[in-house]
Specification:
heterodimer; A: 501 residues; alpha+beta; ten-stranded mixed β-sheet; four-stranded antiparallel β-sheet; globular; disordered N terminus; B: 177 residues; mainly alpha
């Protein structure tokens, strides 16, 4: 459509806009969309201790855990089931009931209304764009089925060995690939079928896809775990697939999604970056978000290996999703809470991470704008102090950059509404800002709690970091996934290490 | 008769050399990137430049892919700089809209000195066309080779033609001596 026509003697600069809207993309989500749209929980802030005719919750300080426990008991006696946040004990999550809250409740509590993620951040996960190789921008990562990877060492052909235990597994895989993968991409990704004679055939170099019988996966778990853990080279180069599941996919539904996940994972394990995630720069006025693509992400995973011991692993990943290093360490833990007990051990761990960071910095000859440390559980105060101390004294002194410490976990069965977020609380503390967000992206089945410490004062950055980082998981494209890639990689590695011992 | 042939030959030679000068002018704006020929552009074959510009503008109107649009605008920028005058002024005026940089409220949220802009390669490419800052050139050169961003960066830095994925270099822009 012509929207401007400027005459200039002989030349006419015809100012044209795009002829039509963006290319149509079959956005996944029809059958995978399992998100419950109903809101089951609401958040309330306690303004004053509830007073009833017969009972008074004896609270002197509404922000104290003791008070929260007392109030919780009182609410419970009145038939209202509530939970509170340890970090912000004056904030309660209440299960919704059909009727309105009684008068005494409304006098003591005020609701914290969820807001849309887009309203808070200026964008949400649907505004991210995926850039593939050549001419290819898409609204969906599932276009991995149609487009060449964003970046790959193999220019013409990428060969992947496929070991199958039964011929029908290979036939199923081949038919799925032929059905769903674009022809030009099939020429690029070459599957090289091999019959599996012995499980140790998998213990060879190069990227391999193993199509195994469900029974073999159980009976030879230890051998498989050993091969799997030995295959780690930044990321495991061995992709395991349950052949029986594969057969079900061929006869049932969801083949397109299955193949897309598998292909993305194989490309990534081969050292390619399937796509680059573009932030919606036209939507975001807040420039701090632009730190995310150049940040360095450190995912910390923990696995209990004894009554009082845990193995810790840190995976270093770039803002483009590339794994650049590992650091591991054994820790004394408080057996139930899985929190590190000895500060010295954590010191050593952080020093190890610091050394890796240093070598990364020397390799790329650039300081990351921001360092994000992510783990799946709440950070203990000691961890925050130790990490800060170490980063502040070693890393941050070398380059005056920022540190975001973030832990995320799923609050099962709690929903605040799709595409919604709630800020539970924030407070300024020595060296930075602490806060908690609840987030339910559009396809999430439940809410994710994001707890953070940040050496700057932008409360929205942790939320944006979660959304951005989540999109860099090339091993799973499923829309309702809640785990974050470097943490997931660390935990998977620990799982195989543990199983092999 | 001979005189007539001589005149034609001389005229052809004249045209050829004008074409050479035009190719040189275009090379110069690509090489210098921030230069506009302006007063010296009358020695160039403006018709040739206009025809190239027109083809690029038509392609731009049909182009969906943002990176390809940036590549086309990159070449339009060189041609407009060589042509100079009104064409260049109009191109500069419409560039923020063509790049999709102007917000609905009319503001262009680009601070040419803000280093964070180049953390996002696509934004860096667009911002470079808009700002033509030298520090951005360094960032564009450091983009990972083999990626679509790097290929478009080469175009903006005057080192490459429109990528094949974006339809390749228009025939009318192949100005050679």
């Amino acid at each position: 459509m012509c929207i401007g026509f400027i005459s200039l003697g002989d030349v006419k600069y015809v100012h044209l806009r795009r002829a039509s809207g963006p290319p149509e993309v079959r956005y996944p989500g029809k059958f995978k969309s399992t998100a419950r749209n109903n809101v089951t929980y609401r958040l309330y802030k306690l303004m004053r201790a509830p007073t009833l005719e017969s009972e008074i919750a004896s609270c002197y300080e509404v922000k104290a855990v003791e008070c929260a426990k007392e109030v919780k008991r009182l609410l419970n006696r009145k038939g209202i089931k509530a939970r509170f946040f340890v970090e912000y004990p004056d904030v309660y999550v209440l299960r919704l009931n059909d009727g309105n809250m009684p008068e005494w409740f409304r006098k003591s509590f005020s609701e914290i209304k969820p807001r849309s993620v887009r309203e808070v951040l200026g964008f949400d996960e649907g505004d991210l764009r995926y850039r593939f190789g050549g001419r290819g921008q898409s609204e969906s990562p599932y276009d991995v089925l149609r487009r060449k990877p964003y970046r790959c060492h193999a220019l013409r052909r990428l060969s992947i060995e496929v070991y199958y235990e039964r011929p029908e597994y290979w036939e199923a895989l081949e038919s799925l690939f032929n059905r769903y993968v674009d022809r030009s991409l099939l020429k690029f990704v070459e599957l090289d079928p091999k019959s599996l004679k012995d499980i140790w055939d998998l213990d060879r170099g190069g990227v391999k896809l193993a199509l195994l019988d469900g029974k073999t996966l159980e009976s030879k778990l230890r051998e498989i775990a050993e091969i799997k853990s030995r295959s780690y080279d930044g990321l495991s180069t061995l992709q395991l697939v349950d052949g029986d599941t594969l057969l079900k996919v061929v006869s049932g539904g969801g083949g397109e999604y299955y193949v897309a996940n598998l292909l993305s994972s194989l490309l990534f394990r081969s050292g390619c970056i399937p796509y680059y995630v573009e932030l919606p720069t036209d939507r975001i006025a807040y420039k701090d978000y632009l730190k995310l693509p150049r940040a360095l992400y450190i995912g910390v995973g923990l696995k209990k290996v004894g009554e009082e011991y845990a193995k810790g692993l840190a995976v270093l990943m770039t803002g483009h999703g590339k794994v650049v290093g590992y650091v591991d360490k054994e820790f004394h833990i408080r057996s139930r809470s899985m929190e590190f007990l000895e500060e010295r051990e954590l010191d050593e761990f952080v020093n190890g991470i610091n050394a890796k960071l240093e070598s990364y910095r020397n390799n790329v000859r650039e300081d990351p704008e921001l360092i994000v440390v992510v783990r799946s559980r709440r950070f203990h105060e000691i961890e925050w102090r130790t990490l800060r101390k170490n980063f502040a004294s070693h890393w941050l002194r070398l380059s005056p950059k920022e540190l975001l410490l973030m832990s995320t976990f799923k609050l099962k069965n709690i929903t605040i509404g799709p595409g919604r977020t709630v800020e539970v609380g924030r407070r300024l503390m020595s060296g930075g800002l602490h806060g908690v967000w609840l987030l339910q992206l559009r396809e999430f089945r439940s809410t994710v709690k994001i707890s953070y410490f940040y050496t700057r004062d932008n409360v929205n950055l942790p939320l944006a970091a979660y959304i951005y980082l989540r999109s860099l998981d090339f091993t799973s494209l499923t829309q309702n996934r809640t785990s974050l890639p470097p943490v997931k990689y660390a935990r998977n590695y620990l799982k195989w290490m543990y199983l092999s011992q | 008769m001979e005189k007539a042939i001589d005149a034609v030959v001389l005229r052809l030679l004249g045209l050829l050399s004008r074409r050479c000068v035009t190719a040189l002018g275009l090379w110069w704006t690509r090489y210098r990137r921030r230069s506009v020929l302006n007063k010296r552009s009358h020695v160039l074959d403006r018709k040739l430049l206009e025809s190239c510009f027109r083809e690029l503008a038509t392609r731009l109107g049909q182009e969906e892919d943002e990176l390809c649009r940036v590549a086309l605008l990159g070449w339009m920028d060189f041609v407009a700089r060589a042509h100079g005058g009104e064409l260049y002024r109009q191109f500069k005026e419409l560039l923020p809209d063509d790049l999709g940089l102007r917000r609905p409220d009319g503001l262009i949220p680009i601070n040419c000195g803000e280093k964070l802009i180049c953390n996002e390669p696509k934004l860096c490419l667009k911002a470079y066309l808009f700002c033509k800052e030298e520090w951005m050139e360094e960032k564009l050169r450091s983009l990972a080779a083999g990626t679509p961003y790097a290929e478009v960066a080469r175009v903006l830095l005057g080192e490459g033609d429109i990528p094949e994925e974006c339809g390749g270099q228009p025939g009318s822009c192949a100005v050679r001596c």
